[in-house]
Design a protein that fits this description.
Blueprint: H1 14-24, H2 35-46, H3 50-63, H4 68-80, H5 84-93, H6 100-112, H7 116-127, H8 134-147, H9 151-162, H10 169-181, H11 185-198, H12 203-215, H13 219-232, H14 237-249, H15 253-262, H16 270-283, H17 287-300, H18 305-317, H19 321-334, H20 339-351, H21 355-368, H22 373-385, H23 389-402, H24 405-421, H25 425-438, H26 443-449, H27 451-469
Helix pairs in contact: 2-3, 3-4, 4-5, 4-6, 5-6, 6-7, 6-8, 8-9, 8-10, 9-10, 10-11, 11-12, 12-13, 13-14, 14-15, 15-16, 16-17, 16-18, 17-18, 18-19, 18-20, 19-20, 20-21, 21-22, 22-23, 22-24, 23-24, 24-25, 24-26, 25-27, 26-27
Length: 470
């Protein structure tokens, strides 16, 4: 996202800043600042304190009364501070209401008032007129609607331009961003690929493309994109981190470790990087090294619940349940909503056959995050193992809502099993058929879970299987 400026991105000189500071401190008897100097000073102070930027503009208006650009700067600051009525009042006092900059500010103010249709009307009227710099006009207006999260409108404006003119790289980036925000990832991918087709050395396009693939869990494509990104810019730490994450999810643990270690000198939050490295060792069941890195992470950031939880999982795997319990309770003290900590407390109780206490912890974890598939499946399995199938069903349902294809077919077959055991064979068949539509090979799981079901429902299941495969 572009950095916001009231006027332009030209920085003031140190001499100008010092001259202004001497003037405001009363160290110089007089001081005159031309409009351009006022604008540079206002933008300089805007990124530190809006009150200071407002003082600069007010000083400028004393020296240049009613100057429209300075008035617009004042209006923008008031709007950003939430003084919308005052901002709109001042805007309506401006003489040249048809000025392009005035109309842009009016569109922005209307969006802040949530008067979106009025804002659109002005925007579309501007776009219907001949423009000296049409690309900048489309970008300016698209940006306003994007910033107020009216992504569909922003996208409509960009695509309207695209009907008659190929979009520039800047406009393609805007389009891709909006597509991502509305969840249209496939078109976002095509748009980033269009940018790369224009210039294959734009690292940002490769990185963003990688992020979309990563979101979609298409890790091999994500890995290619991140690899291209770090090839273009070898010192792109964030790209190396994302490349490491992608290797991790592909179970290429040594490669993930190499990526993380490459960032050891440049990554700002070392404590977080140590967690990533520890997770590599933990996945390789090298718990001693994992523990070293988790402890170093905690040493660098004591209020670090993630490292406490990671360290606890290592202690669990090593059978050190009291130590793990203490660490998890410390994590909960730091972050009471850390559902993973509650889940692993449940795991400790489950391993010690304290099933009712385990369920209590699992339910707490599920309450904090009902979208976590592992937590929901674990609760379902725990109830199913107790033959409490009716209690298991809602958790398998919840898991199937949030799972990927592999996990979803598993959850659906568990549902089929539960329904079979409560003698609701119609529902059992319904979920078997639903699972087989996604993965015809999933039937073997049902037979493994429910051999009685194979015996009683085999004829009907065979018909379903034939219907699915034909």
């Amino acid at each position: 996202m572009k950095e916001r400026f009231l006027f332009n991105d030209t920085p003031p000189s140190e001499e100008l800043i010092n001259r202004y500071k001497r003037y405001t401190a009363g160290e110089s008897a007089g001081g005159y600042f031309d409009v351009e100097e006022v604008e540079m000073l206002a933008d300089h102070f805007l990124h530190q304190n809006t009150e200071d930027a407002l003082r600069v503009i007010d000083m400028g208006l004393q020296q240049h009364p009613n100057h429209q650009d300075l008035m617009l700067g004042r209006i923008k600051i008031l709007a950003d501070r939430g003084n919308l009525n005052e901002a709109m009042h001042l805007l309506n006092l401006l003489i040249n209401q048809e000025c392009y900059e005035v109309q842009l500010v009016k569109i922005e103010l209307l969006t802040k008032f949530n008067r979106i249709e009025e804002a659109k009307k002005i925007a579309f009227n501007i776009l219907a007129q001949p423009q000296e710099e049409p690309e900048l006009t489309y970008l300016d207006i698209s940006d306003i609607f994007r910033d107020c999260e009216q992504f569909e409108t922003s996208l409509f404006i960009l695509e309207h331009r695209e009907k008659t003119n190929a979009l520039s790289v800047d406009m393609l980036f805007e389009k891709a961003y909006c597509l991502e925000q509305i969840g249209n990832y496939q078109d976002a991918i095509l748009t980033y690929q269009a940018i790369i087709a224009v210039d294959s050395y734009i690292g940002e396009a490769w990185f963003n493309l990688g992020q979309v693939y990563y979101t979609l869990q298409e890790y091999k494509d994500a890995l290619h994109a991140y690899t291209m990104c770090v090839t273009i810019k070898e010192d792109d730490t964030i790209a190396w981190i994302q490349k490491g994450h992608t290797h991790f999810f592909l179970k290429e643990i040594d490669n993930a470790y190499t990526c993380y270690m490459r960032c050891i000198k440049t990554y700002k939050d070392k404590w977080e990087l140590y967690i990533f490295i520890a997770e590599c060792f933990a996945l390789k069941q090298d718990y001693e090294n994992a523990i070293l890195y988790y402890k170093e992470s905690i040493r660098q950031n004591l209020d670090n619940h993630r490292a406490h939880i990671g360290l606890a999982t290592c202690e669990i795997e090593m059978g050190n349940y009291p130590t793990a319990t203490k660490l998890l309770n410390e994590a909960i003290k730091i972050c009471p909503d850390a559902y993973e900590a509650w889940f692993y407390l449940g795991e400790i109780e489950s391993r010690q056959q304290n099933i009712e206490q385990a369920i209590t912890f699992y339910q707490k974890a599920h309450t904090l995050n009902d979208a976590d598939v592992i937590v929901a499946m674990t609760l379902g399995n725990t109830y199913a193992n107790k033959r409490d199938y009716e209690q298991a069903i809602p958790y398998y349902h919840k898991a199937s809502e949030h799972a990927d294809v592999l996990q979803r077919t598993e959850a659906l077959m568990f549902l089929a099993t539960c329904y079979f055991y409560i003698n609701n064979h119609d529902m059992a068949l319904y979920y078997i058929e639903k699972a087989m539509k996604e993965d015809a090979g999933s039937l073997s799981l049902f037979y493994a879970l429910c051999p009685e079901g194979m015996e009683k429902l085999s004829e009907t299941i065979e018909k379903t299987n034939n219907k699915t495969t034909n």
